[in-house]
Amino acid sequence: KSFGLRLKNKEMKLLTKLTAILSFNVLAAQQMPTQLNETHPSFTYSECTADGNCKKYIKSLVLDSNWRWTDVDGINCYTGTEWNETYCSDPDTCAKKCSLEGGDYENTYGITTPSDNQVRLAFSTYDSSSNLTSIGSRLYMLDDSNTYKKFYLKNQEFAFDVDISTLGCGLNGALYLVEMDADGDVGQNYNSAGAQLGTGYCDSQCPHDLKFINGEANLLDWTPIPNSSNSGDGRYGTCCFELDIWEANARATQMTPHTCTIQGQYRCENETECGDIDAGERNNGVCDKNGCDFNPSRLGFDSFFGNGSEYSVDTSRPFTVVTQFITSDNTTNGDLVEMRRFYVQDNQVIKNIAVDFGTGNSHDSITDAFCTEKTDAFADAGDVSSFADRGGMKAMGQAMDRGLVLVMSLWDDYEVAMIWLDAQDPPEKEYANISGAHRGPCSVDSGKPWVVEVEQADAYVTFGDVRVGDIGFTMASLNLDDDNDDSSGITHCSTDLDCKDAANSKDTICVVASDNSWDQCISCDPIQFQYECPYFQGSFKSTAEATCGLTCDSLSRKDSAPASSIM
């Protein structure tokens, strides 16, 4: 069984019709192109500061190497699920001889940029010039032509717009970050391609299907993946920290941090290190495969997220996703203690759901306490403490200090048909009423790849307007309905009268920083005060503490929002 299984790299398949002489199978190589060059699509993101300004930066996107054609003078190094032994008799020879080619992002892979700050990933793309059909894709943001952009998100807010309206059961339009090396492992052994051709991928699942890892071909013990026409698994996996800000289709979503015992990209070399599921080692690897997931449906809120106006977040239309990374001292130097989420749609802020696992504690965000209580509550559905065992939120924050690479992808799942996201997992009937097994409204059979690749061939995901910056300020450019309310639900004020309609009005007063740099309606109720502390900016914190006679302590904060109880 696979509990919460999610192998991004393994399960994004490029189905290829081998009717063209130069077939673009799911491929990778380590040498520079000899047949085809490419132009990286430009992509603009913004960095926002507490003065309300957002500065735009023009970057570019690059396709992952595993999607590319690899060849020697136009002859495939890999076809279908087999290596060409003429050039790939051993890992070193293969990496030395085979070239990694450029690609046509739009016509071959269905990757387009509708505007300077948007990218659209088509699920299925037919290229008439080569009689080829590709499925899914995975992109990375480049800082320059040879280096991935690294993001440092502690005490920061990350926002983006998304359209997942066409993604049905079994699909996943994901935006996440991983601790890849910024240079894409260029210079390791025989890798001369590097980030400019999308090499060096890793994630917490330690995927085995990368054709090349650390500058060597991963062809030892190569085994075709069942039901796949072009992919397989090699002896080695490639592992690293993973921060899943967003995994979703129109029916379900979750955010999930995954921790590891290693730093940076790491090649695992045996079943235990890799946490191989078939070997019974899933929870023993260097990385946490389950993660600490926050999935509204799994937490008892099926009406929160879905396709239609009856849901709080209506996925039939675009919306904005905002994630805040709160630290223990509200600076970039503190330990990561919380991942907080809210949404914006039709200029309305939609707060996250809150859950009580029967302990009397309300959780509307990911914290170590949430993860512990969720693991206990969902133990019968397969949850284990693998996230906490590998350092929990503090370890995730340390990886964020080292910098993470942004990934955007669209994929389907040959392993378990995406049931970990949108259906019942474990899928067996005896788990139907077990707490934590329900993860979304889809049936366990609805996400079969050979079905969705036909029935959802026109599906796509669009990501856009990526913004990073000071907490509470990535949304400053939006015209939200309430002029006093900013994107975090904060109510700004001049007098106490401005606070009478504040979202949390218990003992709410207007406080203005001693240097007039910040104003906010706050509650002096001890529990609510702790809830609001992470939003206090600069000198406002000391003013608020003095006004209420309380001290901020993010580590002991209790959420005050009404919660659904899971017993």
Give the number of helices: 10
* Amount of beta strand: 25-35%
How far apart are the first and last residues' alpha carbons, in Å? 25 Å
**What does the main sheet amount to?**
17 strands, mixed
Tell me the structural class: alpha+beta
Total E-strand runs? 36
Mean pLDDT reading:
88
Shape: globular
Query: From the alpha-carbon coordinates, what is the Rg to the nearest angstrom?
Result: 24 Å
What are the segments in which pLDDT stays under 50 over at least 5 consecutive residues?
Answer: 1-28, 481-488, 554-562
- Helix proportion of residues, in percent? 10-25%
Model description:
With 567 residues, this protein is of the alpha+beta class. 12% of the residues lie in helices and 28% in strands. It has 10 helices and 36 strands. The strands form 10 sheets. It has a 17-stranded mixed beta sheet that branches. The longest helix is centred in the C-terminal third of the chain and has 11 residues, at 392-402. The protein starts with 7 loop residues before the first helix and ends with a strand. Mean pLDDT is 88; it is low at 1-28, 481-488 and 554-562.
